[in-house]
Every structure is written in structure tokens, then in C-alpha cells.
Protein 1
Amino acid sequence: MKTINRLNREFFSQDFSEEGPYAEWLERYKAIACNYARMENAIAVLSDMRDNASYIYYGGFSQMLGMGRNRKEGRLPSIWEEEIFRLIHPDDLSGKHLQELRFFHFMKHRPKKERSDYYLASRLRMRNATGDYVPVLHRMFYIPGPCDDTLRLALCLYGPLLLDIPGQCVIIHSASGHIVELEKQDNTRILSARERQVLSLIDKGLTSKGIAETLSISIHTVNRHRQEILGKLQVGNAIAACRVAKELELI
């Protein structure tokens, strides 16, 4: 299963509340995205995970990428900005999606009041108007919903890489300036120690009975761990769970 499919599962399985001042809140962040594009000459994409839609705004950097001066801004019927993805180097695009999955898990484990303090910064290569790949700074912010515990919006900004960043991809605490390299980020809290142990034995080919005997627990407990693992990793079977866990370096 592709990383982008796992992101879809993660995003759309959130328990979005239908209550609260959602429309007014969304308009406020649309204005923020538009202002980023205007003030930084960036390309700004605000993705709405509840409605599976995006709002895109073009600054001057879009012309450097050959996207034209008078592109139509506004709502797209998907959270995935395919027009932009086509310009990203294929090797960087697959890494970008995995970084976003890791960042999503990082944010879900932060207290809600702290989530607005973090953003993801990464280096990408994007094709410009002459067909050459140029270094680009990609920044991403997950925005908590106004009345629930979801990460309802994601704001992506694309602009020229004026100053290098340490590592290919980092998480930055915007208030303190503290930097965490995403490749070194501990994802182990996604699963408990016992769940990682069970999944590691599943990956080695052991049956539930074999796992129960190895860990001296009941088959019922093993099956309960299996269901928890599938739910936490948002996958449908053990094979997919092992694949996701390896990419997140859980096993």
C-alpha cells in the first residue's frame, strides 16, 4: 500500500465534529494562506481533511516554476495538489509523503494546546520553467480543529530554498527555535512496547498460537494486540501493518 493511501486513511478516519464555528474558522485560515502567498511570493495550499478539498494561492514563485502569471486560485476537489506534485522530483515526492505521515503521528502525540507551535520544514527539488530541478523549501503546518481533537487542516508552503536546513527534513518549534530531525524522531510511541513485540513476531511468520507461546500470554490477548495494531496503523491486515511499521522504524 502506498504511503499516500495510508495518509488518506489517517486523515479521513479522524472523528470530525459537525458542531462549532467551522465556516468562520475555515475562512480565517484561507485568508492566512492567501496572505502567505502574497507576502512571501510562495505557493500556499490549505487542505481540508474533513471535506477532502484544498484552497490554493499562487505567489510569484509559481512563475519561476512555469505555472503562469494568471493562474486561477480557489478550491480544488482534493487534498492532493497534483499539479504541484508533478513538478517535484519523484524521489523527493515519495519521501515527502512519508515525512508527512511521520509528522502527523508526531503531532497527534502532542497536547492540543502545543500543536500550533510546530511545523515541518524540508528540502525538495522541483522542476522550473526551463525544465531544471531547483532547491525548494517546503513547510507544512497541521492545524487543530476548533472544537475537537482532530488535525483538520494542513497548510503547505512552497518557496525558494534561501537558507539551508540541517538535515533533509526537520520539525521546528516556532516559539523556541528548537529543531528535531525527523529521521531521528522517535515513532515508537505509536505502538506500545508489547504491540511492537507482537508485530515483530508476526513479521517473522509466527501464528497467534506461536506468539502466545513465545510471550507466555493467551491467544485472546494476542488477537487483541493484533486489532489494536491494525487500528493504530490504520491498515487492514498484518502484512500492511508490518510494511508500515518498518517504514516508521517501529520494528
Note: The chain has a mean pLDDT of 87.
Protein 2
Amino acid sequence: MRHFPIFRLRVTTPRLELRLPSLDDLDALADLAAEGVHDPELMPFTFPWTDAEPAARALGTLQYHFGTWASWSPERWSCLFAVACEGRVVGMQELSGSDFAVTREVSTGSWLGRRFQGKGIGTEMRTAVLHLAFDGLDARYAVSGAFTDDHASLAVSRKLGYRDDGIETHSRRGKAADLRRLRLTRDDWTTLPGFEIHGLGPCLPLFGAEPAP
């Protein structure tokens, strides 16, 4: 697709491929969402989309992806990658930016199908988009956040070198819950071998990351 080259962008790691999903990939993501992506007793998301019924979670997954494609602009974008491990779609990794040309700041979010959790995939796919952000897009900062009882997400952030960046209080299922903000700077980022970016050049204007003249 010449006018939206993001569909040719890929990030590869020793085990994973991150790509904008095909329609078949979207079906696979919707199936995973319907199966569930976390313990129903917990809620790791600020928007509780996983509280919906399975069919609604599946449809919402499709609609969310379609919506980000339709609303993409260099001033505000959200790149939703399907994550494939050994050829099988296992989850979604998001990298987003707002006024990136000015702020040089990105944020991340993700989820994995429950049967693929506990295998180190979450760390590897977050590392992949950080590689894209810092080494591909020349970001200065990457921010993330997790509720204080989301130990798995916080552990990934700590492992990758994020530092505390404050606390926010959210209403979660009708009760107050603290979310810990986290920030990773370019100076604290270390590029790892085996992580590669493919097809980025034509995409740079869409990210607001055109090379300086």
C-alpha cells in the first residue's frame, strides 16, 4: 500500500515478528481477546475493555485496529502491531505518539493471550518497540504505566530500565486504584543484538519523524 507504507513495517527479534495485522491476523487477535487475556479478578487496563462479553471483546478488538488506521496522522498516531511467535499470533503491542516531532516521546501498551504468558514474550515484544522508538524514530523518552497490583507489567518495565515517574489515581471498577507511571530515557536504553527494523524509511513522515534537513 503505497500511501500507507506502515503495512510494510516490521520489527523482528530472535523469536518474534511485529507487524501491522492482516485481516487473518485480526481474526486471530479477536479470538485471543475472546478467550481472555488476564485473570478476571484483576483489571490491568485503565479502560476496562476486557470486562465485556467474549463476542464483544472480539468485535471491539477489530474496531480498535480499524479506528487507529482511519485516524492516523503525523501529529497523533498509534501503531498496533500483531505479535507473531513461530508463525502464530500471540498478542498485540502498541507504540503511540502525540506531537512526536516536538516531544520525541512515545508510550506503549500491550496484551498477550493467556496461554502465551509466562514465556518472556512480553519483555521481548516491548523491547522490540523500544528498539523501533529509540533506534528507528530517534525518540528521547518512552513512557508506560501499570496499576500497582499489575506485577507482571511492572517487572517488565523494571527489567528494561524504566524509572518511576509518579502516581496517578484512577477509578477502576468503581474503586480508586493507583497507577504507577514509568519513564525510560534514551540514555538508559541499550540496543540489543538480534532486533531489526524493516521497511521504516517510507514510514518516517507518517510518524512525524522525518530526518532533520
Note: The first strand starts at residue 10 and ends at 12.
Protein 3
Amino acid sequence: MQTISILGCGWLGLPLATTLINKNFNVKGSTTQTNKLPILKAAGIVPYIVNIESKSIPTDFLNSDILILLITSKNRDAFQQFIKQIETSTIKKVIFISSTSVYPNSNTEVTETSETNQSPLVAIESLFTQNNTFKTTVIRFGGLFGYQRKPGNFIRAHNIIPNPEGYINLIHQDDCIGILISIIEKDIWNETFNACANSHPKRAAFYTKEMAKVGRLHPVLDPDSDNVYKIVSPEKLISAIGYTFKYSNLMDY
């Protein structure tokens, strides 16, 4: 039975962990908050306090087969130190969760070979993908939504929808989990994938619909917007793992 360590059992990490447990994986999970340890334990997760900016990472947390990194830190130096600890552990396979924010708004479709920003996140991706001690697959998720993360609450400033003629790149929590489990079960490593629904409605139409669902009617479409955007293609992922999105048509969500 494989053991998987999940760094960051929050909005995505906790339901991912419980799904993996139901599939008979042993799961270790981390949080930075002591009061969340009982929640992890009650879910069947072996819980740890882990902060990669701390020099005291529990050695046993990395006594696993696979490591999934689900934290939002952009501290390159902290990740560099953390990687040194991974190198001396039993971890041989890593999934690093990144973001489609690595691509600039080019008003075109972007793929995994498109130009990226010069950003801390891209630099951290490289720390993992260039390391030969373990195999890394990078997943660049689009905007995350689902359950308590309601898209109708994403637009806050003065109820104005910016870039209304741009397009959205979102992915539901259930699809995030389905993709991560497919990567593990199909043993797909040393790859980089974009992961977002393969439909891209215009921001005006999508957010007007979603804001109405949470009682926020009559949003304003920003008349001064430059309408910059990118359309993120998930076709490489779909082809590589044969994945079918549960929430593909975002206008039907």
C-alpha cells in the first residue's frame, strides 16, 4: 500500500486526502495550525504541523512514496531548503501544484510550451522539474471553484466585472481531485500539464450568471477595461490521461 504525503490539507488538500484514503492509500497530511490537527486525524489522515519556512520539518512526514505540494507560498529559498530534505527522504515522486497565472495575458490560446512570466512561481517549478533525485509532475490549475468557493463571490470591487470581453479559465474542486488521482494511478511523471475546464465563456456572461446565484444582481461591466485575457488549453492533459471533466461546460454549472 502506497503512502502519500500532502503538504497543505486545506480547501483542496483535505477532500483529496479523504478520497485517497477511500482508495486504500495511506495518507499523511500537514497543516500550519494546531487546532486543525484533530480535523485531519478524524478524517483518517496522519496529521503533522509543517511550515516549510521552518527548519524543523518532521522527518516522518517525508517517509512516503509520493509528495503532493498544495501550499501557496512563493518563497523560493524556503522551497530550495525543503527540496534538500526531500532528497534525503524516501520520496521518489512529487506533484507540484502551480497555476495558470504563470502565463501572461496574450489575448491568445496558451499551452504548456507558451511563454511564461518571470515569476517566483515559475522559478519554484524549475527547482522541482530540474531535480534528478525524484520525478516531478507540475499541474498548472486554473482558478479554483466549487462548494464554498462560489464564483459569484469572486468579483467584489464595486460590483464591477473587469475585462468583461475576456475569457475565464476555471476548474472545479472535483475535477482537481480527479486529475490528481489519475496522475497517481496512471503513474504519469516528469510532465507539466495545464488543468482547467475545456470551456471558456466570456467573463461578462459567466460572472453575471454566477453573481445572480448569490443574490448579487446587476453587476457593472467595466467600460474602461482593456479586455486582456488568455485561453488556457487543457488538451495535453486530456490526451495524456484520457480525463473527462465532470464540470466541462461552465455555463451549465
Note: Helices lie at 13-22, 37-42, 76-87, 120-129, 173-185, 203-213, 235-241.
Protein 4
Amino acid sequence: MAFQLAPTAIADGYRLDAHETVGSTNALAIEHARAGDPGKLWVVASRQESGRGRRGRAWATPQGNLAATLLLIVGRDLRVAATLGFVAGLALSDALDAVAPGARIAVGLDGGQSMQGGRFELKWPNDVLAGGAKLAGILLESTMISDERAAIAVGIGVNVAAYPEGLPYPATSLMALGARADAATLFLALSDAWSVAMRDWDEGRGLARIRKRWLARAAGLGSEVAVRADDRIVRGVFETIDEECRFVIREEDGGRIAIAAGDVHFGAVASAGAV
């Protein structure tokens, strides 16, 4: 099955640039923007050779996995556009529910107790988990293309056929979970779910709805966490995400701290201090 857009995505004006192999879908999307592309363009591949995650980390996309980037053109104020990562998480988790309703999920959160159920969860700020194991990652990148416009590349990588081993955290793939969906089937569902989630987001006016939906899928909500933010580690209980989608921790003394960026660890890893 070749990559294709859902009818809802086509009706909403999205376009498709599909490849078997690319260097990086995010990089290619930004190239399109600099060449004058108007946005609402999905750049998709079943293999990328130089993908990357947050903080420049490598993100492997072997043949059969999904690498998808949505190019959007927005105004110069990027604060609201930054919340598109939460839209992406919701759209992807909805798409996963659609293509893998019977997936076997029974993995612990960062080494914690085993969790049973068929629910895909969202780990702040940019991961999708299957019972605590990383299934997908999301990366937003931006660049100014004029004095008044910016290009946003919403990158989404999903372990469909394979997942990396030897990582400091558990990982999984749709195939390992028993799902039969391939990358093209998942992308078709993703393009549909994205259109629905974007209508909820409503150019940022519906962020409260997005936040509520995201919290309903949040991994580790109410549990002990450790967050590495810049050069320090903050420990406490994951209480919520605030109106700006920052990660809110309740510390042992009852104080609350909101974190805009950092690496989150749950359960046994947080308790052991191994971050």
C-alpha cells in the first residue's frame, strides 16, 4: 500500500510528498518552506537515513517504520505554534487506536510495575508510549522564512516494524505489540486524525480542549517523577500540565514548579535517582 492522504485531509487542503527513503523528513520539509511552499504539506517516508530527535539525538527509521513531517507556515509569534507538539501527540495516539485496537500492551513505566490495557499514552513533552515503552517520538523545528512568517516542521517518527535495542529505556514497535498495520496504513489514519485534532486546536484558541484531552492520556500522571532540566534535576509528583503546556511538579515541601523543557523519568528510575 502506497502512502496516501485521508479524504478528510485532502478536503482540508493538505498535500503529500511521499518517498521510500530520505535523509530527514524534517530537513526536507524546511527545504520546501525555504523554496516557497505554502505549507499544509506532509513529507513522508518509510525509511530515513539521518533522522534526529530532541537535543540532536539520532532517531533511527529503518525500512518499514514511519517518518512523517507536516510543514505548516505560521506567523512570527511561535509561542502558540509550539503547542502543536501536543496536537501531534493526540492525533498520533488516536491513529494508533484506530489501526491497532487489539495491541498487546504490558510494559512498565521506566522499569516500574507492569501495566495492562490497550491504551497508548503520551509522555511529556513529545513521546508516545505503549505501556511505558517508547513507540514514537515527536520533534518540532522552526525557522523564519520572512520578517512575518515562520515554517514549522512537525516531525513524527513511529516504530512500526522494528524498534532500537540497547537503549537506556524500554522501546517497542507495532509489530512487537501484535499489530498488523504497516506504515502506510498508520499514515492514512494519522492524516485523518490530524485534521480532527487541528479543528479542536483552532489556531490555538482551542488549546484548553487539547490540554484536557492530552491529560486524559498522560503517562505517569500523579506518580513520582524526576526531570532533568538544564543542569539540574527536579523531583516530585507529576501534577498536571499548565495552560502553557508546561510540566508541573509538586515537590516534597508542597511547592509547585513549572518546567518548560526537560527529560522526564518515572517510577523506579525516578526513585533511584538514575537520571
Note: The CA atoms of residues 7 and 102 lie 25 Å apart.
